[in-house]
């Protein structure tokens, strides 16, 4: 391993913010293990990212940086703690260590009041959106602490404007994302002066499959209808959120920990 080689694990990497983060980190010189479940979830009513889509993200990232294997795919469900341990072990074995972990995997369900949401859908939302972040932290933080000091580890999570806004018919999603922000703050306090920090981004309405499914759940014609609620009057691109995550993964964010950074087009105003 060389001193300037930086290694990241990114979940939810087949599409959306996760995929954009893989591309952004690769272009900044990171080695990236791109992790995704790669298949549908029978509890959820819309398609998940596929193994083929994950392969396309990996191929595009390597093509952009003219490298054969700077980015590698890894199939794992974030609800499976052992699978994420294996992903982290793969990154360490392949590239010599771990410097950043980005928890971007997410799903959504709802469309009816909380008490009418099927229990299996509610559980999937909680287990992926919050449990998956916990599982990644349990696997990745010890790996980052294995780097010799002075270390510069970064644990990052994708929260949501839903962490602070009560969105009707999306109660479990709001609860999970609020949990993510609490987790990041507590983790930052626990990590203290170890050289590993913990931060989150809080996206607004971003042009992803989750937003498209949200539109369907609300009976809207499509995701663009959400644009009017943001002062920018447009949807965010996944790459706009990914660029902030890439900044937080880098050395310029050294003074930040426990932060929840809004990347929301002004939605929180």
From TrEMBL:
Q: What is this protein called?
A: SDR family mycofactocin-dependent oxidoreductase
Source species: Parafrankia soli
The reply on keyword Oxidoreductase is yes
An annotated Gene Ontology molecular function: oxidoreductase activity
Provide an example Pfam family for this protein: adh_short_C2
Keywords assigned = Oxidoreductase
Extract the PANTHER family matched here.
DEHYDROGENASES, SHORT CHAIN (PTHR24321), ESTRADIOL 17-BETA-DEHYDROGENASE 8-RELATED (PTHR24321:SF8)
Q: Which family does it belong to?
A: Belongs to the short-chain dehydrogenases/reductases (SDR) family.
| Matches recorded under InterPro entries | NAD(P)-bd_dom_sf, Sc_DH/Rdtase_CS, SDR_fam, SDR_subfam_2
TM helices/strands, residue ranges: none
